[in-house]
Amino acid sequence: MTFAATVLTLYPDMFPGPLGASLAGRALREGRWSLDAVNIRDFTTDKHRSVDDTPAGGGAGMVLRADVVASALDAHRDERPILAMTPRGAPLTQARVRELATGPGAVILCGRFEGFDERLFEARRIEQVSIGDYVLSGGEMGALVLLDACVRLLPGVMGAPSSGEEESFESGLLEYPHYTRPLEWEGRTIPEVLRSGDHARIAAWRRQKAEADTRLRRPDLWERHVGARDRPPSGAQRQKDD
Ligand code: SAH
Predict the structure, then answer these.
(1) pLDDT tens figures, 10-32
(2) Please, is 69 exposed, middle or buried when counting C-beta atoms within 10 Å of its C-beta (0-12, 13-18, 19+)?
(3) CA 150, CA 82: separation in Å to the nearest integer?
(4) Ligand 1, CB cutoff 6 Å, lining residues
(5) Is the peptide bond before 182 cis (omega within 30 degrees of 0)?
(6) Quick one: pLDDT at residue 44?
(7) Which domains does the chain have, with CATH numbers?
(8) Closest atom of ligand 1 to CA, residue 109
(9) Ligand 1 geometric centre to CA of 109 (Å)
(10) 149-208 confidence digits (pLDDT tens)
(11) Which residue among 5, 48, 102, 217 is buried most deeply as judged by most CB within 10 Å?
(12) Which atom of ligand 1 is nearest to the CA of 132?
């Protein structure tokens, strides 16, 4: 099964864009995933081909019409999950990326202007996804981010299969820091332990660094990690409550 991505956008020329280069691009050419960028404007019915209109209630900007976007979506709907890019969505996580990467692919809606008419989300089963707490001018960059994160996890895409597993977020922690030659640079050397050849010591050092850095840089992740570690398994909890 190949991971099939369909992107609904007003700017299909933005695809594959950066996903045509490097590992994702090679995987695309090798057929390990597919990408179809569809122009939402092709689904308009009026002579002006309008995809947007002024916001109900007034205010700045324009809103993407539910009827036009739904027509584009309905023409591409199948068993794949439908995701819409919006800063109002659930923050994208590595866990969700991993689920998506093991599935059949995704249909991704890219917003523009002020975003989509809300009725679209009431009328169709659509997962609203945000790539972070900042505002982009359109959903295309978000779709590229999401697809890049998925594609690198597909079988045969990354050089070393294990390099996906120790990474930041996979364990609930940030990854440990990396070093490479030269041994000395601007008077700084590589930590001695990494040159010791003692694999147990190296693993312990890396674990300790990952924990310390997560605690310092991402107290939010650290709290969740510690919480998950200290919480009793759900079965034990239930017994105690009974
Ligand atoms: N008025 C909206 C922002 C619209 S930005 C608001 O304040 O919530 C225009 C489009 O860019 C959105 O429809 C969405 O598709 C995309 N976009 C902007 N920021 C995003 C983010 N953080 N994550 C995902 N998509 C985003």
Answers:
(1) 999 999 999 999 999 999 999 99
(2) buried
(3) 15
(4) 85-88, 110-112, 114-115, 130-132, 134-136, 138-139, 142
(5) yes
(6) 98
(7) 3-151 (3.40.1280.10), 166-241 (1.10.1270.20)
(8) 15
(9) 11
(10) 999 999 999 976 655 567 889 889 999 999 999 999 999 999 999 999 999 999 999 999
(11) 5
(12) 22
